[in-house]
Design goal:
Elements lengths: L1 H25 L5 H8 L1 H10 L3 H19 L7 H21 L8 H5 L7 H20 L1 H9 L1 H6 L4 H50 L1
Amino acid sequence: SFMQTALLAAILVGITCATIGVYVVLRRMAFIGDALAHTALPGLVVAYLNGWSLFGGAVVAGLLTALGIGWLSRREEIREDTAIGILFTGMFALGILMISTTRSFRDLTHILFGNILGVTPADLLLIGGVTFITLLALVAFHKELELTSFDPTHAEVIGLRADRLRYMLLILLSLTVVTSIQVVGVVLTSAMLVTPAAAAALVTNRLPRMMI
């Protein structure tokens, strides 16, 4: 049964990462998956030291990072990739500092590599809920997200709130990354966000020439 649970978790995470990764690639935010995964560290440390849910701590840290990235880049004085770099290094450094100043220690290597066989039925329901919410939001706001990805100025002119859509996408990304860390770890989460979408882009760009 635990193998079946692991397989379902891998399928759900793969679908979610590949789908939302399209907008990550279009908006040139390939670094954000790795950044959000690492910025969950302070939340994990605080949750562990206080006996709280590790997942809850990671979610809070991820959401704060996503909102911080949106806030720093809202007026375009700081580019989005720069904001990602600032929050990434700051939050990760805070997590390392918190670990170094406490006497408690916990093996956190599962953050890097995941623990897919340790996914419980409750975790699977949570992953399924995040997948459902993410896919529903991406389908409902597909046209708006596509327009703001290619031409945010035109989107603003016709009345779309590009900043709100950016916040929504960042929040969905943080939830996706946090749930994926438990299954596949930091490294594969970043790869699953970027690689499928980049491969699809290469195929679709070359398809007309291949057909000719």
